[in-house]
Write a structure and sequence with these properties.
Three copies of one chain form a homotrimer. Chain A has helices at about 10-35, 40-45, 65-75, 75-80; strands spanning about 45-50, 60, 85-95, 100-115, 120-135, 140-150. Chain A has one domain (about 10-150): Nuclear Transport Factor 2, Chain: A (Roll), CATH 3.10.450.50. Chain A is built from four helices and six strands. Chain A starts with 9 loop residues before the first helix and ends with a strand. At the A-B interface, helix 1, strand 3 and strand 4 of A face helix 1, strand 3, strand 4 and strand 5 of B. Chains A, B, C: Keywords: Dioxygenase, Oxidoreductase.
């Protein structure tokens, strides 16, 4: 292995640890979303979690409302057009806050694959901001605002 | 730099170190794949590595078979339609196992660019599971199963 | 939490810390680019930074030239066709160099969303190499070469 430079002080080790932790958390969270595990996805939010998922719609507040929205998607839009959704997050910034929460900003896009069609539909492209909090040592989303790029 | 919260115990440092290591490993591995370096790509698998790359096809077993598949792609499909492929992995989860291997799950998509055409073809979107093992301190893929979303 | 394997020696911790640091740096840098903050984007390069951004065009040298190129894009192409651009980087490799700089290689693609159109244009897909350097403890791009896949 190439000798590494000594430029990562302990605070950078901390942010690096947090950074990977957040990436792993998001990967698990979208797995629940993309397989429509409504309760598990809702449980990745704090009990009072706010999911401001769509401009013009009321934010979803609390796990019951978040789980219900997943089930409603499953029973209506997905039932009529059973795409496999894959949420991709990227270009993540993690900003530790003084109160122990993490503010994050990232890009998101959805790939939607119809059965038998190898090329997915791509979009929308979104900008997302989160506040993450620890509950019993586990990351949870306390607040999420999704801003689709096409809504101006 | 913002003061970071003291929420990353040593086990999280370990998983964070592994997480970045796996990301870097995958980046190198797909570079071999996308430039059709057949031997180097095959060498990123363990000697007995299994590459279950396509539903309905037999899994590729061992480096000789894996390298042969890359060369066959190069000599047939790529020769007829010389796209530049770019494999993108995302939403990675790394699960350390008690036996010292790592189980991973992630999304993958291929971008394929034709000469002179700025917009790439996108797809297929896939879900991938790997088992990674260390050989002489280096990560290798011991097992990979690729499940394209369009195959149901 | 699953017990983690003891396979991440201190050099891997260093590379992991650097890896997350580079990811976070790129996320901030593209945020400036995608919101057309010309001065802030230029400031993410070293004073003598080189941005070889397009085959056939002269490389941009220095922050003044880089900022001017962003403003020119804003005043011409973006004014005529106000897409929201989102630069996505992926499959990053970080190679620490003996002189304290970091060489990186990664894939990049641009998603461009037109107002009111939920599906973004995708492309071009590119291969990028950077040299990153530390200035006052902060990462800066010293050199960047962007190679679009469609240019052969």
């Amino acid at each position: 292995m190439t000798p590494t430079v000594a430029t990562a002080p302990s605070t950078d080790l901390d942010i690096s640890a947090l950074y990977a932790q957040v990436q792993q958390f998001y990967a698990g969270q979208v797995r629940h979303l993309d397989t429509m595990r409504a309760e598990e996805f809702a449980a990745s939010f704090t009990g009072d979690g706010v999911f401001d998922h769509r401009p013009g719609a009321d934010p979803l507040v609390g796990r019951t409302a978040i789980a219900a929205a997943i089930r409603e998607y499953q029973n209506t839009r997905h039932a009529a057009d059973p795409v496999q959704r894959r949420h991709w997050f990227n270009m993540l910034q993690v900003f530790p806050q003084d109160d122990g929460t993490l503010r994050t900003e990232y890009y998101a896009v959805v790939l939607q694959t119809r059965p038998g069609v190898s090329e997915p539909m791509v979009g929308p492209s979104c900008f997302v901001t989160d506040v993450l909090a620890y509950e019993d040592g586990e990351l949870r989303t306390k607040f999420r605002k999704v801003s689709p790029d096409y809504v101006v």
